[in-house]
Amino acid sequence: ALIVGIAFGGSPYIAAHLLGHFDLLTAWVIPSFALCLRRSLRTGGIGSAIGCGLCVAVAAYAAYYHVVYLAIFAVTYTLASWHAVHIHREPRAHRRWLFTARLIITALMALDIVLIVVIVLSGGAVINIAGIAISARTIQNPLLFLWLLAFAWLLTKLRVAVRVQRPPADTFWRGAQTSMITVATFTLVSLPLIVQAFRLAISGRYVSQTYFWRSAPRGIDALAPIAGNPFHPLYGGAVTTFYEDLGIDRIEAVGWVGVVPIIVLLMARGSWFDAEEARRWKVVLIVFAIWALGPFLTLAAVDMGLPLPQALARFVPLVDNARMPGRAMVCVYLALGVLMALRVAGWIGLKAGTTTDAPYVMPRLRSAVGQPAIVWLFIALLTFDYLHAPIPLTALDRPAVYEQLASIADSGAVIDVPFGIGDGLSTGRGSQDRRLLYNATLHGHPV
Prior knowledge:
It is a single chain. This protein is mainly alpha-helical. The protein has 16 helices and 8 strands. The strands form 4 sheets. Strands 1-4 form a two-stranded antiparallel ribbon. The relative contact order is 0.13.
């Protein structure tokens, strides 16, 4: 419990948003929702399903992103519990036409690599073919073509079959009951928000930032999980400088996984407190890690040209407003913590039978790695790994001009000069002093 608590509540994600975005610190609704969902799917308990709905409602009032993540989590965890999707792969038989296809694909890949090298060295050019101008100044499109060729080459070697099956009737209806009660509870508690959202929609005042294929916000850089903790008191400054040199936002793109989680998950492989539960959380980890990577795979701030599933989010109503993909790391840290807890509990000889609400009895420790001193050592190392200190604070004052504005009893708007424009997708233009939002709480007028 301490391990998963530190991994989640003390994660670099939480550290990042201690610097702002305080709404996202209501991340506690996610593990609360996960606990209620698990119990409801296992027992069909109505109380647990109501708990799910209350968690989503709290998220709706506090942080819109968490509503989206809870929906994705619910679908992912439920399907993983049902064993609904099975992916099977097997090598293809040796055929002459497949061998010929591989030769052609390999030749095309070689030509594409040459084109990429030429563009990098020369800066590219505009090529005219039959009166059509083709711009070849960046490597993103050639890289995309290279990925497509690589996937095509793999398909000539492997056959992949995806099979979807319906779960047993009792399991299915427990899931259906959980979904219906969750939605009903959420609707009832969030009715004021839903009514206001409906009014905005029918009046045409619901707006969202517009972004396109290439201008979509980037997610976690593929180097971030191994680049270090940018908030660590010992080396965080160097990591922050590294982020800045690459143009990576350490708030929205923090992705340090840590050394301790990797060591814990690699030790005593196959030893789980509950192997079936571990399988579900592995699926959750994979889904949210891919989502956090964003619409394109980036490595050292270089667009690698590989489209990812999150690129389709902008076409899904309501999901499109959860536009910063890196925030999905909150669920990655939760999954990491749960998997570490399941692993450590497996070390010390606990069995899945102790997961019921019956009185808990600690069984005999079965190996040196399960000794309490070793477990406490990992807790201490994880705490140090995720340490973020000191937490910078902002000194706030009450300028006299805003006190004077507060004394004016009208509905006039206030604009701070110099002023700026921001769209939430970029650094903005002009002044970006966020203190004006605090100042608005002093003068009490529209901004």
